[in-house]
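Suppose a colleague, Dr. K., hands you the sequence of a protein chain of 375 amino acids and asks what its three-dimensional shape might be. Before reaching for any lab equipment, you can write down a predicted structure in token form. Begin with the sequence itself:
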Amino acid sequence: MENIKKEQEVGIFKPLYVLDHTPINAYFSKNSDDFVVREIPLYEFSGNGEHLILNIGKKDLTTYEALRILSEISGAKMRDFGYAGLKDKEGFTTQFISMPRKFEENLKNFSHEKLKILNTTTHNNKLRIGHLKGNAFFLRLKKVDSVNAFKIQEAFLNIDKIGFANYFGYQRFGKFGDNAKQGEDILKNKLKIKNPKIKDFLISAYQSELFNKWLSKRVEISKFIRDFSPKEIKEIYKFSDLDIKKLKNQDSFFKILSGDVLGHYPFGKLFLCENLEDEINRFKNRDTTVCGLLVGKKSFRSINLAKNLEDEIYKNAYEYENLMSGGRRFAWSYLKNANLKYNPQTAQVNLSFELDKGSYATVILEEILHKNIFD
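The predicted structure, expressed as tokens, is then:
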């Protein structure tokens, strides 16, 4: 109750779901048996070089806590370690860590109840943030009867078919959901944070919340374009007749706008959507996707209708954009290697899938269940 009250006080933003079904009953616990994350490296390691690559498995530890343990036992300093991304504390997670090879002998008899070294190799370079292709997830849902199992399957298949809104997950916003507000207060010079990493993280939470608000608005527009008449859409959004016609002509659920910033999917350069007709087909074939704004001075700029909608969400943040570097993030993304199994005897549903780096499995699960997964 205390957490719920705190959330209400700070006014946590809840993004709009893409699918239209009612909430589904299932039990989920983020423990090491029911939530497993395996990091997928960006490239194969060479097997040569001065950097030792550890594939570690951990449970009930943050990435930093795991590095601290490895540092204390190996003698390597925290700054000597490299990693591609941070992994959740809850559940069982694997990831790749780099460290100077000269400390390898000190880990020969390594043993820890919450941390395992699964295998090792070597590489020429230190791992850096972002040096991962994505993550493979396994999630187990419990107390699922046959009716709700069918609903879960339908939702999961729909997401696999059409894609999903690539929202930032709850992890970004803190236990009480106040990270974004603190980030905004830092930019407004109302809050002083000495630690530069914490300061940057809180500001990124502010950028992330704005992104979620913008993406939720785009999901709303996509639903309205699908369900309402051109006359009704014009009354609601004041779009031109030509823009409405172009939106209505798109088969995909998520609609591209004139002037959107697009990116080659699953990776590649950003560019402007200047010929909407050409880009509709490339988006439909999953060759490109829409990229939402992380406000800042280095952000790739949209134009036309896309910019008008961005300005509605980001107008108050533009005042501080020179204090943030900014960027773009995939707004619409897709599952890979999706699989579902239901066991009626145990009343359990097992879900497995892969996501691009930066995407959240908890966002997928909330889209499926249509409720806060930790209520």
